[in-house]
UniProtKB/TrEMBL annotation:
<dbReference type="InterPro" id="IPR003010">
    <property type="entry name" value="C-N_Hydrolase"/>
</dbReference>
<dbReference type="InterPro" id="IPR036526">
    <property type="entry name" value="C-N_Hydrolase_sf"/>
</dbReference>
<keyword id="KW-0378">Hydrolase</keyword>
<dbReference type="GO" id="GO:0016787">
    <property type="term" value="F:hydrolase activity"/>
</dbReference>
<dbReference type="Pfam" id="PF00795">
    <property type="entry name" value="CN_hydrolase"/>
</dbReference>
<protein>
    <submittedName>
        <fullName>Predicted amidohydrolase</fullName>
    </submittedName>
</protein>
<feature type="domain" description="CN hydrolase">
    <location>
        <begin position="6"/>
        <end position="252"/>
    </location>
</feature>
<comment type="similarity">
    <text>Belongs to the carbon-nitrogen hydrolase superfamily. NIT1/NIT2 family.</text>
</comment>
């Protein structure tokens, strides 16, 4: 997987507290269907309920299985109808282990098959909110897209470079594209932009950083969705905090070229 081009579209979804989850789910499915022609579509973190709507987590928790979970079912159908790979952002997953909840990302193939799930490892909140209400995932996840290996991370994970090293080191093939959906607060927007570019530079990968528009339970969102190249260059971005789409073509051959021309990863000691 050293060549080819992937057209990636990041959908910076508006989370409006006056819009029902069911209505937003239907609207987002329509937005995904409109991306027919893209190779990979990415949605933000916890867009069905809002990343800071803690009081609604338990009530809105659902199964990750597209046969039973309403968001998974809707996104599976949308991916199939559009013929795209879809990173459907994340949902509050109702685990089977004693009522545990997880912040779980869902990835669908163009056939609508659930190709991968990733339970967020680093939970935000400092002993409050998500950190106390969600159970941490334990396993880094990569996904073999036909043109590239995708490495999955979610929002607060972006602050922990060790996870991204694990994704790049994964066997049998490490990540070339790091996909990071988020519900990142506006007051730390500069961190979001800085970390996205840093993870791209230090791992010599593409980074797809998909933020949210609007506010989550009164917490204004950063927006600023961006596509970053493996040299740290910004290929496409929005400065808007409104709902919008960011699209860029990823030349996957650039990952190997950057790693060969500036082989910093070979000099790692630890």
């Amino acid at each position: 997987m050293d060549g080819g081009t992937v057209r990636a579209s990041l959908l910076q979804i508006q989370v409006d507290p006056d819009e029902s989850v069911a209505s937003r789910r239907e609207r987002v499915a329509s937005l995904v269907r409109a991306q027919a022609g893209a190779d990979l579509v990415v949605l933000p973190e916890l867009w069905p309920v809002g990343a800071f709507a803690y009081e609604r987590f338990a009530a809105e928790a659902e199964e990750a299985d597209p046969a039973t979970g309403p968001t998974a079912l809707a996104m599976s159908a949308a991916a199939r109808d559009a013929g795209v790979w879809l990173h459907a952002g994340s949902i509050v997953e109702k685990g089977t282990e004693g009522g545990a909840l997880y912040n779980t990302s869902l990835v669908f193939s163009p056939s609508g098959e659930l190709a991968a799930t990733y339970r967020k490892i680093h939970r935000f909140g400092f002993d409050r909110g998500e950190a106390t209400m969600m159970t941490a995932g334990t396993t880094p996840v990569t996904v073999p897209h036909p043109e590239a290996v995708l490495g999955l991370a979610t929002c607060y994970d972006l602050r922990f470079p060790e996870l991204f090293r694990a994704l790049v080191d994964a066997e049998p093939a490490g990540a070339q594209v790091l996909v990071v959906p988020a519900g990142w607060p506006a007051k730390r927007a500069d961190h979001w932009t800085l970390f996205a570019r840093t993870r791209a530079v230090e791992n010599q990968c593409f980074v797809l950083a998909c933020g949210t528009a609007g506010s989550h339970a009164g917490v204004a969102q950063a927006g600023r969705s961006a596509v970053i190249g493996p040299w740290g260059e910004v290929l496409a971005q929005t400065d808007s905090t409104e709902e919008t789409t960011v699209t860029a073509d990823l030349d996957l051959s650039q990952v190997a070229k950057v790693r060969e021309s500036f082989p910093v990863l070979k000099d790692r000691v630890l």
